[in-house]
Design goal:
By secondary structure, this protein is mainly alpha-helical. The protein is about 55% helix and about 5% strand. The protein is built from 13 helices and 5 strands.
Length: about 325
């Protein structure tokens, strides 16, 4: 039997956060051991928000290097940059024509991002989920590991796939999201009702994967908690719940174990332990990232090889789709 297939991507817009890491990236290495995987840097998605060209180029290189630093193996997994594989934009256009304006208008990310950038509500931002559907469907992915914020985009991908299959017969695998139990929604350290995001204007709200020990310790120390001074997971204790989730992801301990560990102790000691756990988690990744980015030729070789393989595999699905829609194709 064929192995199940997995695909996931991350945008290279700004610094990846601890939320990206605990909600998605950390899990990528786990699924890579079990399934046939493709992972990519979603740089086409990233220009739905204005990017500075020089910084953008570096962010793409850095994000790709980070995927290698996670321990994902280019010989085993397909690791590529989205803009280097033209089939994504091609299928996205076709899927745009099988997606309704009404269903796209209901996407909460579109609503949130249009509010955040009222000066640039572009058509790409609106059509973004169809490009994400193309990413996933091109590789016939069975599972898509993502954080909870991407669940709605997975649902629309499933709707688009089922609609197309209904019209033309089996064409796409209908994918399922793979959402981790703890860490799927890491919240802002300053406003724990909002997700931790790299576009947060208040840097105290997030920890970047590349932050040093001092910054990590400072950010956790200043995280919003409550006045109860009791480490327990409960409704209304959003700040403490969030720190417990972070600690749990880094140490593998359950909420009960964490509550027992800090019983009778204040938030100061707890926060110190959370900071130490995050530092221990990110330190080796940062060292590996520094080692890999120093070898530009190696990173570029992996990129080229990843793009070639991704193109070869995704072209099969695109050809199948184009044939079904009725595009003129030459006989071989
Ligand atoms: P992006 O780049 O915003 O985020 C990458 C991954 O990180 C997860 N994530 C979080 N998880 C937990 N807590 C948080 N605070 C948090 N913030 C982000 C996201 O859920 C995501 O899994 N549209 C996607 C990129 C994409 C994609 C795809 C993903 C493009 N094509 C195809 C899967 C399949 C995005 O913007 O993720």
């Amino acid at each position: 039997m064929e192995n199940k297939k997995v695909l996931s991507m991350i945008q290279p817009s700004g610094l990846p956060t601890l939320g990206n890491y605990l909600g998605a990236l950390k899990n990528w290495s786990n699924v890579a051991a079990e399934y046939d995987c493709a992972f990519a840097v979603a740089d086409l998605h990233a220009i739905t928000v204005r990017q500075d060209p020089q910084k953008f180029k570096k962010q793409i290189f850095d994000m790709y290097s980070l995927l290698l630093a996670l321990g994902l193996k280019p010989e085993k997994n397909i690791i590529f940059v989205q803009s280097q594989v033209p089939t994504h934009a091609q299928l996205a256009w076709i899927l745009d024509c099988y997606t309704q304006f009404g269903e796209m208008s209901r996407m909460t990310q579109f609503k949130d991002k249009s509010k955040a950038h009222p000066e640039n509500i572009n058509v790409g931002l609106f059509a973004y989920p169809a490009l994400m559907a193309a990413d996933i469907l091109l590789y016939q992915a069975d599972y898509v590991p993502v954080g909870a914020d991407q669940k709605q985009h997975l649902e629309i991908t499933r709707d688009i796939a089922e609609r197309f299959n209904g019209l033309y017969g089996d064409t796409f695998t209908v994918p399922e999201p793979l959402i981790v139990e703890t860490g799927a929604r890491i919240m802002s350290l300053q406003d724990p009702t909002k997700k931790m995001s790299k576009s947060d204007p208040n840097p105290k709200g997030y920890i970047s994967i590349f932050d040093g020990k001092d910054i990590i310790a400072k950010r956790i120390k200043s995280a919003v908690t409550d006045s109860e001074a009791c480490v327990r997971f409960a409704e209304g204790k959003d700040g403490v719940n969030n720190l417990m989730s972070i600690y749990s992801c880094c140490t593998g301990k359950t909420n009960e174990e964490i509550e027992a560990e800090f019983a009778g102790q204040g938030y100061g000691i707890f926060k110190q332990a959370v900071a130490d756990a995050v530092i221990e988690e990110l330190g080796p990744l940062q060292d590996e990232f520094a080692r890999i980015t120093a070898d530009r030729a190696y990173v570029e070789d992996c990129m080229k090889q990843g793009a070639d393989t991704a193109y070869r595999i995704s072209s099969r699905t695109l050809a199948k789709v184009m044939k079904k829609v009725g595009y003129y194709q030459f006989k071989k």
